[in-house]
């Protein structure tokens, strides 16, 4: 086969395996590498320390696969039907990509393995490496170079028909394939809906995300305490956030995904925050061992649940939060204190006072003091209204 024939063949194989989009880029230095360096220099990666540690590897795909000549970019649409509305007082939202029964990493890696097998059958002895979201590869850059879409102002890759709800994967190979034309045109125009809708104002400018303020980062990647000034902005997001994608006009027009692996699970779309808060570590591991929800860890997910319960404002959550106030983790105790301060009421105040007498962690003590002040303010406001 010629490079052109092989390219046509691998695209057909990719579609038959279950990829919705496929394109080919040459394994060259990505145009976004300098932007990555600037982004890191501005501190926008937050506590994702693995990014600066391996930043140099993003300079060329040959750091991912030695001798790489081509990058086959693939995408799977996960824009399923709209999840059920958050209606119950304890309910919270899970980002679409994580609300299904499968981990997209596992699904895409298996499909990339099959695609690599196809290529090895055509070119015995060739070298390949399939990657999904974990290798030092600027996947969105190579997707744009492969003609799969353009960069939106929310930094997501957008495809005219599929929108931006896309899982991206890459198959790197030393085989010379015929590259596709890059997608050179942005179709965002003057629209700023994604920037304007962000609850935590995480976009300092178009096409730039300050991860330190992004709800997805705060609820998934951040291992410590969520800054107090950002907690109310989380609203009812337990894990991740879809706001800047949901408001995008291109997603309103996007075709719906039919892939069974990514259809939303009834118990996660939406999820019960009180149940998540009270999960034991064993229950957490059993339930989420093969789910993206394992990423923030047992402590992180329960921290998120406490904050969501505080934001939801229903006093029925107070008993669960009082239980969490005595959690072994100071991160969970601090989040529970904040939520109890937000809810207020005699039971919450009494529990906060009691915990203050026992607490030895300095940061949690600060949370308790702030929560008591907030609860007192709520009580004063109630008296004034009465």
UniProtKB/TrEMBL annotation:
One Pfam family from the record: QueG_DUF1730
GO terms under cellular component: cytoplasm
Chief subcellular location: cytoplasm
Official protein name in the record: Epoxyqueuosine reductase
PROSITE patterns according to UniProt: 4FE4S_FER_1, 4FE4S_FER_2, HEAT_REPEAT
Positions of the 4Fe-4S ferredoxin-type domain: 179-208
Species per Swiss-Prot/TrEMBL record: Schlesneria paludicola
Reactions listed under catalytic activity: epoxyqueuosine(34) in tRNA + AH2 = queuosine(34) in tRNA + A + H2O
Keyword set, alphabetical order: 4Fe-4S, Cobalamin, Cobalt, Cytoplasm, Iron, Iron-sulfur, Metal-binding, Oxidoreductase, Queuosine biosynthesis, tRNA processing
């Amino acid at each position: 086969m010629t490079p052109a024939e092989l390219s046509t063949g691998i695209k057909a194989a990719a579609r038959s395996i279950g990829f919705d989009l496929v394109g080919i880029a040459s394994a060259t230095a990505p145009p976004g590498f300098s932007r990555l360096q600037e982004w890191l220099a501005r501190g926008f990666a937050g506590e994702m320390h693995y990014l600066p540690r391996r930043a140099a590897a993003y300079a060329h795909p040959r750091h991912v696969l030695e001798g790489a000549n081509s990058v086959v970019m693939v995408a799977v649409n996960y824009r399923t039907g709209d999840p059920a509305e958050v209606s119950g007082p304890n309910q919270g939202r899970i980002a679409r990509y994580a609300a299904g029964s499968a981990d997209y990493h596992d699904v895409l890696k298996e499909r990339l393995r099959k695609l690599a097998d196809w290529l090895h059958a055509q070119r015995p002895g060739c070298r390949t490496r399939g990657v999904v979201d974990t290798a030092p590869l600027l996947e969105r850059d190579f997707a744009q170079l492969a003609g799969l879409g353009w960069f939106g102002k929310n930094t997501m890759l957008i495809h005219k028909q599929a929108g931006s709800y896309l899982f991206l994967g890459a198959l790197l190979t030393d085989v010379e394939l015929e590259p596709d034309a890059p997608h050179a045109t942005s179709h965002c125009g003057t629209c700023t809906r994604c920037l304007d809708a962000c609850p935590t104002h995480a976009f300092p400018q178009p096409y730039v995300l300050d991860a330190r303020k992004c709800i997805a980062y705060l609820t998934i990647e951040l291992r410590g305490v969520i800054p107090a000034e950002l907690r109310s902005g989380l609203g009812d997001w337990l894990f991740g956030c879809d706001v800047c994608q949901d408001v995008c006009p291109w997603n309103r027009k996007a075709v719906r995904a039919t892939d069974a692996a990514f259809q939303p699970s009834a118990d996660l779309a939406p999820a019960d925050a009180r149940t998540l808060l009270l999960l034991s570590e064993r229950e957490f591991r059993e339930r989420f061992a093969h789910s993206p929800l394992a990423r923030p860890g047992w402590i992180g997910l329960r921290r998120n649940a406490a904050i969501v319960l505080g934001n939801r404002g229903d006093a029925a959550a107070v008993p669960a939060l009082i239980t969490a106030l005595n959690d072994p983790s100071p991160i969970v105790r601090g989040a529970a204190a904040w939520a109890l301060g937000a809810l207020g009421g005699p039971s919450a105040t009494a529990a906060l006072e009691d915990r203050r007498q026992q607490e030895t962690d300095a940061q949690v003590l600060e949370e308790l003091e702030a929560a008591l002040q907030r609860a007192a303010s709520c009580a004063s406001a109630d008296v004034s209204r009465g």
